[in-house]
Amino acid sequence: MSKFLKAGVVVAAVVGSAVIADIAESAEIAEGEKVFRKCAACHTVGEDAKSRVGPHLNDLFGRTAGTVDGFKYSAAMVAAGEGGLAWDEQSLTQFLVKPREVVSGTKMAFAGLRKSVDVANVLAYLKTFDADMAATVATDEAPEEASAAAETEETPAQPAELPSADHDGPMKLGRLATEDEIAAWDIDIRPDGLGLPPGRGTVAQGEPIYTDNCAVCHGDFGEGIGRWPVLAGGQDTLTNERPIKTVGSYWPYLSTVYDYIRRAMPFGNARSLTDDEVYALTAYVLYLNDIVDDEEFELSPDNFTEIGMPNEDNFIPDTRPAEEHYAEKTEPCMSDCKPGPVKITMRAQVLDVTPDGDEEGGGAID
Ligand code: HEC
Ligand code: HEC
């Protein structure tokens, strides 16, 4: 018995160290996948990866900089590639820390990763999408737990049985949406707070989330980088010839801020934030706009509707349905609606602003 046990222990120890190495590796990859969320606003990887704001990042290792077919690189990136820059562990590490120092004039609007562990992890993740490098990464052997856990988060549970296509539409096409599908789609939030999910978040919690996920485009202070939208300031400019319309200067209701961030941001990676993160970010956007000034301010459904936006009073409710001629019961007037004789004040004119095209076509638009 004891002999058997010892042998068992030795085997376990040997297998154990291999497993530990694999676990470490798959943990790196799982962390790297999280870091990649910052890149996902602009880059894609994986099977159907396409170039978007930035080139796709499949098979990156060994790629000469600036050479993905069909992607419009900056002149600087193309020149760097022609000058011999190819992507490997070292050049990528330098580029991801300070993109503009490695390729001065690059159009990658990304400040760079601050932590070297983030760089190492994101590279481990990118290797799994590289045909040549994947062999060196033991993804197949790696225990499933880390990646499986990440996946279950993403993949919505399949409803056990989908409703069949036998509903009574005229075409008998499609099927009724399931409750889960409707719940996933029905996420709008009304100014009176209806639709707010449970959750909470403070200004202080929002700051690092904002810095990591939003500042690349909207700037550290919401000032907007390049031509990305400005999120703060602009108060007192609404009557100017060129008003600066921001969340703070223009938006009437806080519910729109929460709804918009949850629905659409970060740009290119929408719906990736938790409800708590959206509360924290909404609180932080309020802070950037000086609407709250306490970093410990916590936003939740309890105090949400107490926050008034500065421009709310300049929005007026649409009362037309209550006006007489819109009201349901009143028939619209169709004849002799204006008392007294009719006077013609103006006649319609043919302005003929369409540039001459080919005569037969009768116009320039095909
Ligand atoms: C705001 C959009 C944006 C974000 C965020 C972003 N990138 Fe980029 N990236 C670009 C653009 C645009 C280019 C093309 C640059 C050029 O042509 O100068 C690029 C180029 C690259 C290249 C060079 C690829 C090639 O084909 O030569 C690499 C590598 C890269 N990005 C990696 C990353 C990684 C990793 C992250 C996240 C840590 C990231 N990028 C975040 C927009 C972005
Ligand atoms: C890759 C760039 C990018 C990133 C990253 C990004 N945004 Fe945006 N954001 C945009 C663009 C583009 C728009 C305008 C979209 C439109 O008008 O269709 C926008 C619009 C907005 C607006 C509405 C502004 C207005 O006045 O219309 C808010 C609020 C906002 N973003 C918040 C955020 C938050 C919070 C984050 C981080 C979780 C974030 N964004 C990350 C690009 C980005």
Report the CATH topology name of the largest domain: Cytochrome Bc1 Complex, Chain D, domain 2
Spatial extent as radius of gyration: 29 Å
User: What is the distance, rounded to the nearest whole angstrom, between the alpha carbons of the first and last residues?
Assistant: 89 Å
CATH architecture of the largest domain: Orthogonal Bundle
CATH homolog superfamily of the largest domain: Cytochrome c-like domain
- Indicate the mean pLDDT: 83
Helical amount:
25-40%
Largest sheet: 2 strands, antiparallel
How many strands in all? 2
CATH class of the largest domain: Mainly Alpha
Question: Count of helical segments?
Answer: 12
Low-confidence stretches: 1-16, 138-157, 361-366
Question: Helix/strand/pairing class, anyone?
Answer: mainly alpha
How many domains? 2
Bound molecules: heme C
How would you portray this structure in words?
The chain is mainly α. It folds into two domains: about 20-155, Cytochrome c-like domain (Cytochrome Bc1 Complex, Chain D, domain 2), CATH 1.10.760; about 185-315, Orthogonal Bundle (Cytochrome Bc1 Complex, Chain D, domain 2), CATH 1.10.760. The chain is built from twelve helices and two strands, in the order H-H-H-H-H-H-H-H-E-H-H-H-H-E. The chain has helices spanning about 1-35, 75-80, 90-95, 100, 115-125, 130-135, 145-155, 180-185, 205-215, 215-220, 255-265, 275-290, and strands at about 200, 300. Helix 1 (about 1-35) packs across helix 5 and helix 11 (about 255-265) packs across helix 12 (about 275-290). It is extended. About 25% of the residues are buried. Mean pLDDT is about 85; it is low at about 1-15, about 140-155 and about 360-365. The structure holds heme C (2 copies). One heme C binds near residues 55, 107, 109 and 110.
